Structure formats: C-alpha cells, structure tokens
Predict the 3D structure of the following.
Amino acid sequence: MNKPGRLAAFLAGGLRPAALFLGAYFLLSIAVRLMLPNALTLDEAEQALFSQYWLAGYGPQPPFYNWVQNAFVSVIGISLFSLTLPKFLMLLLCYVFFGMAAREIDARPAFAAMAMLSLLTLPQLSYMPQQDLTHTVAVLMATSLFLYGLFRTLVRADWQGYVIVGVATGIGMISKYNFGLLPASALIAVCCDREWRARLFDLRILLTAVISLAIVLPHALWLLGNLDLATSGTIGKMVEANAPHGIARIARALASLMLACIAFGALTVIIFAVAFKKDFRRSLTAGDRWTRLLGLMMAVGLLGVVGVILFTGTTKITERWLDPYLLPLPLYLLLKLERAGIDATLHLKRLVPVFIVIMAVTSVPLAGKTFTAGLTGAYTRINYPLASVAEALKAEGRPAVIVAAGMHLAGNMRLQFPDVPVINSEQPIAGFPAPDDMKGPVLAIWSEGGGGTGSPPIDLSSVDTLGLTASPAKSLSRPYYYGDGKMQLNLGYLWLR
C-alpha cells in the first residue's frame, strides 16, 4: 500500500486519528511562527497589550479570546509562544467539535474524519488563521461546539446537549457579536421540523438559557455603558468611505455579500466537484431532514446579514463576517452526497493528497513574506526590528512605565519589556499606575518617518502630577529583519525622570 493509502487508512479510524493528524499540522504551524522574528502582528500585539488587564470589555471586540489569552500569559508568562498557543489550540478544538457534530449524524468513524478534514478546504479555517486572526478563531470554535450541542440535542435529547448549546451560545456571543444570528437561525430551522420542534418546549432548554446568560452577563453589563466603544470599530469596517446612498448602497452591499460567500466556500465546492465529478452534480438534488436543517440555518443566517445591510449603513461584507453561518458547508455537501447514495468516505484516499497540499501551502506564505521582504520590498510587521530596538533602550535604563503611540507598538513593547506596565496612548484602557507605584522613569515612544523627531505625538499630561521632567526627544533607527539593509524602522522616544 502506498503512503497516501496508509495515511487514509489511519485517518479512517475516526475522530482521534484525524485529531492527531491535525494536531501535528498545528504544532508545525506554531513552530513556523516561532522561527520568525520576535515581533508581533497587529492582532498579536493587541493580545499582548490587553493581557495586562482582566476586564469585562476591551473595545470593539468581545472579551472571550482576551480572557483565554490572559489565562495562558498568567500561567506561562508573556512570550511569542504564549501568544501563539491559544489560537492553534482553539483552532484544533474547532476541528474536533466539528467531527463530533458529524458523528452525531453518521456514526461511521471515517465520516467524522472526512468532515473534520474537509474544513481544510475553507480558507477561513486553513489559510487565514496562519496569518493574523484571534477573535475569529474563537467564534469558529464556538460555532463548531454549538453544532455539536445542537445535533446531540436533536438526536438524543439529553440534558448534556442542552448544556453544550448553552455553553457554546455564551462563548460565541462574547467571541464576536455576529454569532448572535446563529442561534436564531437554528431556532427557525428546528421549528420547521415537526418532530424536532418538541425539543424547543423541553424544560431542559432553561438550562441552555441560564448557562448562556451567566456567561454573557459580565460583558453585557459592561456593554450597556460602553455601546459606542463596542460598536464603532465594527461599523466603521463595514462602511466604506464615500459610499453611495439608497438603492446604490444596498446593491453594492449585496454584491459584497455575494463575493464574500464565493470567497468563503468556492474552494470547497470546487474540490468536491472535482473529486466526486458526476456524483457531485447528482447529489445537489438529494437531501433529507439534516440537509434541510443545515441548508435552512445557512440561508437564514445569510438573510440576517441582508437584514443588517438593509437597516444599517453597511456597504462592505467580508467572508470573516460569515463564519458562523457558512461553517457547516462542508458537512452539508458531504451529507448530500451520502443521501444521493454515494459513500463519501471511500474517496478519502483520493482527497488526502489535497488536504496535505493545503496544509503545506497555508504554512508557507507568512514565513515566505517575512524571509523574502528584502527582495520584494514588502515588509510585514514581523520584519520590524523591535527586539533590537528594545536592546538599545535597555542600555539607557529600565523604565517603570512605557507609553507607546498605537496598539502595535504598545503590544510589542509589552513583549520586549514583560515586567513593565505598557500604556497605549491612543487607547489608555487602564491608565497610569498609581503615583505611589511609580518608582522610576517613564519611557515615551512613537513611530516616525525619516524627517526627524519633531514634537512627540503623545499626550503626556497624565504624568505631570508625578513631577517628572521630560528629556529632549531622540531618534532611533534600525534596519528591518531580513531586509536589504536600506529600509529602516524609525522611532522617536524620550524619558521622563
């Protein structure tokens, strides 16, 4: 038997072999990230900065991922490893919960494995997390857990299923706000089946409500007093500058939604169509109550997005926004194949090389862009020489507090100075430490162009009461990692002593 055949036979063993296979992939992903320079992407920098605080809310994004990240940092300290590990653990759980959901519908081990591995065909589950995602990974995990709880409740109607749905709903709601349409779409889809409708009137559904409310409540109370802060960032990303009004705006938004759907699921559909050929076309008309359930859930979720378009100023929808609604797509296609009389698991051997190619291809771009920046001139944030900058600053003294201009710079300073409180001057969530705790100098640092330091773009009035005197502003330049030696990162800084 050849190697793909042996691997396919191993994976056909079900949930555990597939989880081990995917776990190895994510360990490789972590190793690739740790090979790169000790500088952070934007999302990583945000997590590094916010890991200093345990808060009920941090800004435009709900706090679940921040809480998980903070737990890891509390246990193993702030490092590139502690910032990378939670994301890939959640991603692995997303695949595992998806396999468990598929197993509730079809008990064959190979079917659960096929469902798990088919998620690799979704760029949101394979390519994008390798780049720079955090909260999106959390909502994907919550969505898979929700599907598992929902299917378990429909199949067995045990109290554990209701509990799982409650936990998943709570986690999803404090992962990303767009998750809210998923429980609503599931409710509508279940109502359309006469037998399953009884599950909604089971008293155990109160467990679902109580558990989800208990998880959401701390953030919901914070949200009541910070609604503008929580929604402004998301609304801003969904509204284009100089967007048209009226029908033209709606048409542009609907076109954006259509393109997002294609970007989300086109690769999956193409791979299935090529692998199953005529059987795939024949399966499009097949189905049963499970395919109707999933089809309705996806359709209602997308209709909810259309409602958002109609009743808000939205003009731009990205595929990331569709994650909770379209995640079931691979399982939906597999079930339609099965209902058409096609044993999809028999094609596992044919698809294993495709899965391996996807794994290899998605592991390369981030490292490739970083290592070839000097040749292409396209520098990523990971090329920023911030470890070198930190060494130069440490030679001048140890700050008691660092005030940095911008989330990215502040998060990187937090990584390079792990024992020093860092404040983002553009969004000072917790403010300065108490005056009695200030026993040393304050370092203010900001990014600048090549034209000299000028005036610091940082409001330092908050430290006036400390009686500190600012030194003259200085410039610090270092070449980018893996650059051509000519392009440099230019920073300005000063000390308050």
Q: What stands out?
A: The beta strands are 401-404, 422-424, 442-447, 474-479, 488-496.
